[in-house]
TrEMBL record:
Organism encoding this protein: Aedes albopictus
SUPFAM superfamilies assigned to the protein according to its UniProt record, in alphabetical order: C2 domain (Calcium/lipid-binding domain, CaLB)
Biological process terms in GO annotation: calcium-ion regulated exocytosis
Signal peptide range: none
Gene Ontology terms: cellular component: exocytic vesicle; plasma membrane
Protein name: Putative ca2+-dependent phospholipid-binding protein synaptotagmin
Pfam families xrefs: C2
Length: 292
């Protein structure tokens, strides 16, 4: 049967003693922007869909301006916890090698109706990231005891959904060993009473220090502006293992979103922001982060 990304066929040219890869070919070759190699397996004991993202080949920009900084985002459109996972940014690479493992919670009853979606996005520090292409297929078309896939990436032109986001500025002074975090503003928040931001300094996966902004009584609570700066003493020797977690909440105790995290251990913009800060000492680096 045809998948949302095109036709599915087995590559019979491979050795029969090995698992035969599934080729997900686009119906229109003119829409193809490259292809991805991945492996899927369902773990029934843990009720998890396991994804091994191996590599991509022949990634092609969809416009003459080329890639800025592409990265990959994956999710399942099931009725369960909406977990969106993403890789780090790969600067202008056309053949990135990922070798990354991901897991998604998935009840057996939802296997027959869930789609797996892989998207290639182009990261832009100052505006909304753009979806360049995607691969999408129904899980019930596959042998989930373990399958290997080569899928064509199909060009799409649509904005990322209007997710809530925080604009954060980071700077680091190596001589003073001081990290400055500026909570600048947010957009697309759900309506909250007097929203404020909690932030934590993370060192070795533990919350070391806590700060919070003032509560904003804004006429537009979905798009509050704080512009509040916080400083943390952070030795240079701990920079590789440190990070920041941020959450939006309110005086009435409403937790707005799971939040966002910035650090080398994170994916996508979280990792990229920390890297940019480390490579530009003493210079404030601002970036938008989606709250998930």
């Amino acid at each position: 049967p045809d998948s949302p990304s095109g036709s599915i066929r087995s590559d019979s040219s491979r050795s029969p003693r090995r698992r035969v890869p599934i080729i997900m070919a686009a119906n229109d070759i003119n829409t193809v922007l490259g292809r991805f190699h991945l492996r899927l397996k369902y773990d029934g004991s843990k009720e998890e869909m396991l994804v091994h993202l191996v590599e991509a080949q022949d990634l092609t920009p969809s416009s003459e301006s080329g890639f800025r900084d592409p990265y990959v985002r994956m999710y399942l459109d099931s009725d369960e916890e909406h977990r969106t996972l993403q890789t780090a940014v790969h600067r202008a690479e056309t053949h990135p090698y990922f070798d990354q493992h991901f897991s998604f919670p998935l009840k057996p009853r939802n296997l027959v109706k869930s789609n797996f979606i892989l998207q290639l996005l182009d990261y832009d520090r100052f505006s909304r990231d753009e979806v360049i292409g995607e691969i999408k297929f129904l899980l019930n078309t596959l042998d989930l005891s373990g399958c290997e896939i080569w899928g064509d990436l199909i060009a799409v032109r649509k904005p990322v959904e209007h997710s809530p986001e925080l604009l954060i500025s980071l700077s680091y002074l190596p001589q003073a060993e001081r990290l400055t975090v500026v909570v600048m503003k947010a957009k697309n928040l759900h309506v909250l009473h007097d929203p404020f931001v909690k932030l934590y300094l993370i060192i070795n996966d533990k919350r070391a220090k806590k700060r919070k902004t003032s509560a904003i009584r804004a006429t537009d609570p979905a798009n509050p502006i704080w512009n509040e700066a916080f400083t943390f003493d952070l030795p240079a020797s701990q920079m590789q293992d440190a990070g920041i977690e941020l959450f939006v909440t309110s005086n009435e105790g409403e937790l707005h979103e799971p939040g966002c995290a910035i650090g080398l251990q994170e994916g996508g913009t979280g990792c990229q922001h920390w890297q940019d800060m480390m490579q530009n000492n003493r210079k404030p680096i601002a970036m938008w982060h989606v709250l998930r």
